[in-house]
Amino acid sequence: MQTLEIRPTTAADLPAITEIYEHAVRYGTATFELIPPDLTEITRRFDVLMDGGFPYFSASLEGRVIGYAYAGAYRPRPAYRFTVENSVYLQPAIHRRGVGLQLLQRLIAECEARGYRQMIAVIGDSANAGSIGVHTRCGFQMIGTHPDVGFKFGRWLDTVMMQRALGDGSTTLPAG
Fold first, then answer.
1. Strand stretches in the chain, DSSP E
2. How many CA atoms lie within 13 A of 70 on its CB side?
3. What domains can be seen in the chain, in order of their start residue?
4. How far is 102 from 13, CA to CA, in rounded Å?
5. Would the pTM count as exceeding 0.90?
6. Which tens digits make up the pLDDT trace of 136-171?
């Protein structure tokens, strides 16, 4: 039996992450990007997250990266500094095997440990039942849907907003 490893992402993982994301851009509606970013751009984005102190994890089987998840700033203004937005992407053959759930659970735990208080999921396409289901299983609540805000593959797409409290959430004042 293969053992799933979820670990902090390194620069060596970025070529595989670039391939996973390229497929999501070209064939999926989870992202509203239309042109897949190359390795240089994925590396730049990774560096921005690392420089910002955000968590980024890779899932691998037998040393091969099959998925990844990260959290980044929800919005740039300082009042949002305790809120993060998550992203989770998997190789298509890995969907519906629990890998996304494990990645998201690890990401949530790490964000809580780092003192973040809210996590936002902006899910592309209201028909993305897999992502909505994984977020629901991880305690996210439906906040609302922005209908017809994206246009991809010749059709209008919604975004679904979900949210989950982290740690103490808004029940106490944050340190700092």
1. 4-8, 56-61, 64-73, 83-90, 118-124, 141-152, 155-165
2. 22
3. 4-165 (3.40.630.30)
4. 18
5. yes
6. 999 999 999 999 999 999 999 999 999 999 998 899
